[in-house]
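Hey, weird one. I pasted the T-complex protein 1 subunit delta sequence into the form twice and got a warning about non-standard characters only the second time. First submission, copied straight from the form history:
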Amino acid sequence: MAAATASAPTTMSDGSFTDKGKPTEVRLSNMNAAKAVADAVRTSLGPKGMDKMIQTSTGEVVITNDGATILKHMAVLHPAARMLVELSQAQDIEAGDGTTSVVVLAGSLLNAAEKLLNQGIHPTTVAQSFQKAATKAVEYLDDMSIPIDLNDRESLLKAARTSLNSKIVSQYSSILAPIAVSAVTRLVSSSSSNVDLRDIRIVKKVGGTIEDTELVEGLALNQIAMSNAGGPTRMEKAKIGLIQFQLSSPKPDMDNQIVVNDYRQMDKILKEERQYLLNLCKRIKKTGCNVLLIQKSILRDAVTDLSLHFLAKLKIMVIKDIERDEIEFISKSTGAKPVADIDAFTEDKLGSAELVEEHSQSGAKVVKVTGVKNPGKTVSVVCTGANELVLEESERSLHDALCVVRCLVKKRALIAGGGAPEINVSRLLTEYANTLKGKEAYCFQSFAEALEVIPTTLAENAGLNPIAIVTELRNKHALGDKNAGINVKKGIISNILEENVVQPLLVSTSALELATETVALILRIDDIQFTR
């Protein structure tokens, strides 16, 4: 009986690499799966990119062209393809924008790597060369970047507008961009190296149009003021209390029933309840509190009609159903400390504001707290839209614009958009590859060519001739115009800085580094083992 032989990778006499066995199949399968994911989002790159309609398992419909959102909703089963989904999420966390670009770039690098493997170059050589090329590319991007100052509002606006121009809400970029810039610049000082976007709260309300979106200096609440018992909906010189206990009659931990067969006993029970609630309300009023925020309760009613009636008589404005995860933000914004027990509810726990008022615009009600004592710690944005779909996409777009401004706080430099940096880096890397020897030169050359996928895709999605456009773009760069890019709106090549198409340096550099890292990781995998 013949012994089964497994084919092993062999190294030829000239140092090239042939691998006809299982590792090649696994690697090819991984690369094809990852490339399929990249092709799926490729059409949504750039200002003229297409949008995707996603129907979730619950029947909810999402319309978006944000790479991270599309991939998050995709049912990706292949483990290598899932790496690209995680790649776009990593880019979303690091830079917030460029989530589509990073996946398209990774797909292009995998294509280049496949050709190199077919030529017989070892996967490890390809992976190492690509990582060296990425480091070199980041240096070139640094060289062509324009340093900025955070006080230069115009530059920040240009970057935010460029981010918004590729979104569904691009026609409203003149409204959303200033909001994003103002929100982030409120929270930073000249020495800040980062911004926590959790300090910017976006309140979504269906009603009106995207044009009605506004920045609130202070706090905006999704909940509405309780006015059914005749309570106030506007309060000047507000003293704000934030409570986590319930304003309803106490309830034992165990379920039990009490049978009352005497009406006097019944009256006594009701009287006790009234007295208990009245005492609670009076103690709250005694501290000087005139605006009461009540946390949502699961165990029993957070507030009853009777206690609402007492609070209305005491001229206290009530807002109930505050979510548990909102408590920290509200506390930070108003200075009110959350209180879990009536005995601990004292005057020093109260926050203060000039005005708390319920606003109603186009059918959407929102409570605004303005004139807080120490502004600058948090900021709120009221995001409005005609329907749920537009509103969701508007919020995602605004988040991306906020991330772009945050990128400029992290790394204070701008770079041209419109495919200009990619072509410039590609040209410089090709020149550098000519100074190298052996397989590394081939790998650098392939890496440089792979970068051209961004301008090619931009041109394709805008309905232009990609070959003609990219050739003309290369020509312009070869003649020394390193800011020449694709002007998608006019369908020509022009100086992209004059068109105000700019993006943060961090978006481009992190996209390059993360994409290369993922490709190197996929290349190094030669087998998949399934565990029981």
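That's the output from the first submission. The warning seems to come from a hidden character in my clipboard, not from the data itself. The first strand starts at residue 10 and ends at 11.
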